[in-house]
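Archive maintenance. Older records in this collection stored only the sequence; we are now back-filling the structure field for every entry so that each record is complete. The fields below show one back-filled record exactly as it appears after the update. Entries are processed alphabetically, and Aliphatic sulfonates transport permease protein SsuC is next in the queue.

ARCHIVE ENTRY
Title: Aliphatic sulfonates transport permease protein SsuC
Organism field: Achromobacter agilis
Length field: 266
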Amino acid sequence: MSGSRLGQGPLLTAPARTSRAWSAAGVLLILLAWHVAARQLGPLLMATPWDALRAIGPLVRSPQFFANAGVSLTRIGAGVLAGASIGFALGVLAGHSARLRGLIEPLRWLLMAMPPVVVVVLAMLWFGLGSPMVIFITTLMMAPGMYVNTVKGMLHVDRRLIEMSHVYRYGPWLRLRHLYLPALSAPLLAALLIAACGGVRLVVMAEVLGAENGVGYALANARSTFDTAELFAWVLLILGLVALLEFVFLQPLQRRLGRWMEPSHA
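Back-filled structure field:
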């Protein structure tokens, strides 16, 4: 028994979970570096972490806060949902057709290679300022990542399982539900995590460069008035939103749907 195990090489072990204590230490290190940099640069260029935290209360109580935050959340939801849906649908279709993959590949490469600021400038010319421009940018930049992960997942599905689904006369919907979605759950959730967090950054960047409302517009106003405390308060709130999306919603969902990949201990 031992000889056969030795002949098979080293046993694979599951990767260790991230240490929460070391993660907390990393957060403290970032805050310390932020504080030291703020002290060196002065309050006109960078607020300290404490100043930014104190500015959150007045910012949240201001009449413009919920209007700007609501507009940005709507844009993030619409852009990420549209980009993820388009990327997933095209990825499923391209996973079945090598010709369609070849047709889409140049467009995928173009969108992933193009700097986001170029897309922002073009969208401002085409749509003007406002929500359509921001949603268009987010959708266009989010779809390629979802498409790539979907295609890769489709191509790694066991061919024997696909043939078996045809033998048992599974229709397209049953194959998608019982064969492809379980196989795609891990890469798709990873892509959705990246898309959601990246969507927040893209929306804020687009609003800073060309919008008449939203969180990015408020950031630009704080920058123009040199109100660094309010600017960094907005940064902390944006980081809180990204943390909420990742650690409270997407990562638990990823762990729950990925349990089918865990080896059985029976």
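Update note: The chain has eleven helices and no strands. The chain has a mean pLDDT of 80.
Entry marked complete.
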